[in-house]
Amino acid sequence: MDRGKKADCTNGPSSSNKATDGAIQERGNNLANRPFEKILNFKIWLTFPLSLILFNIWGGVIPSLNLGSEINRRAVNASRQLGRGINLAGGLDAPREGEWGITLEESYLAAIKQAGFNSVVIPIRWSAHASNKAPYQIDPEFLGRIDWVVAQGLKNQLAVLIRPHHYGGGIFHSNPEDEMPRFYAIWEQIANHFKNQPNEKVFFEISNEPAYPFTASQWNQITSKVLAIIRESNPDRTVMVCPISGGNMGEFTQLEVPEDESNTIVRLYYFSPMEFTHQGANWIKGSEKWIGTKWIGTPAEKQAIMQDFDQAQAWAKEHHRILFLGEFGTLNTVDMNSRVRWTQFLVKQANQHGISWGYWEFCSVFGVFDLKKMQWNEPLLKALLGGKSHR
Fold it and tell me: Is residue 272 part of a domain?
């Protein structure tokens, strides 16, 4: 999500990471109560025409033409390491950290780990901290701040996904040809700066929600270019790619990744139905009319979501790609019972389809953590992770 499109915002490990029942049971899966990490480690090898398919025990798949190759194993490992994640939005993706009321602290990363999450996604507004003139140098002090956050994640045994967010504050859209050299230069610096971070724990994402003025074909070319830049200094790092408009279900069909780039994961996001998840969003004209919309979990509501995930999984199998649900969530304007039901069902679908995920987000307006009370929103946290109280 882009903040330009949005508004403000017991510790102890989860004893249970149970996939919820319902649709999982409907698919005949009797192993839904295994922890996420164990599920992705449980492999059943089957023969498939010219390929091997790695089945996880939810019934989902992590497909690859050659899972025996080292490069594909890295992508599988990255998916496993990302597991159940959360976005640290509202801090480093603000024009300046703290401007939106969030300054990342050491205790936040510790709380995330203690609650039972496996990873953090760090949305970063690199464009606000890089020169507008060649060689487009990133502020060293800001790079040091990112180093600190990455170190805190690793200290807490969390995988870390570094993601450019809100790129250009509209510059990308208004003057893309002139901005592209800057975008590429920023990526060259990011890649070089983090090249010594552990490949098995730190991952890159090329960009968040690319859209107008690019066509799908143009964005595919940009993706290939950035991948080539990253590979010069990070030949073995897993990189997240996304289709035009950021990976909304259905748009991934327009994505094209170089055939030799199998150490990649395709990032999707899910906020459907928007009238429910974004009711009252002050960056969407007319959304105040949506206030009061509920998600009951009717057969029709569930079927719409299941159909989207089935479509995504079918595409992933056909193109031999691993998926990551990089954003999903509901605004705090939504009634809590509906938020819990929808979130629980989304997690169920991701788990069932073998898709690791990163909830949007930690402590802002979609958040699951209350900064004022310094405590988790228990119903929402349980919808994500299951288990006992985290107070």
Answer: yes
Q: How many domains does the chain have?
A: 1
Q: Is residue 391 part of a domain?
A: no
Residue 345 sits in a domain whose CATH number is 3.20.20.80
Neighbours of 186 (CB within 10 A): 22
| Position 305 in a domain | yes
For residues 386 and 390, give the distance between their C-alpha atoms in angstroms, rounded to a whole number.
Answer: 10
Picking from 10, 199, 207, 9, the residue whose alpha carbon sits closest to that of residue 89 is 9
Does 143 fall in a domain? yes
SS3 167: helix
pLDDT tens for residues 322-374? 999 999 999 999 999 999 999 999 999 999 999 999 999 999 999 999 999 99
Q: Omega of the bond prior to 63 within 30 degrees of 0, cis?
A: no
pTM: 0.83
**Tokens 């290939």 sit on residue:** 224
What are the helix (H) ranges across 137-175?
140-155, 171-174
Cα–Cα distance, 291 to 311 (Å, whole number)? 29
- Identify the bridge partners of residue 358 per DSSP, sorted by sequence position: 85
Look up residue 277 and give its amino acid: T
Per-chain mean pLDDT for the chain: 82
Give residue-wise pLDDT tens across range 211-268: 667 888 988 999 999 999 999 999 999 999 988 876 666 678 889 999 889 999 999 9
- Give the H or E element holding residue 358: strand 356-359
Give the angle subtended at the CA of 109 by the CAs of 105 and 112, to the nearest 5°.
Answer: 135
Q: What is the mean pLDDT of residues 48-67?
A: 35
- Domain ranges, residue 88: 3-385
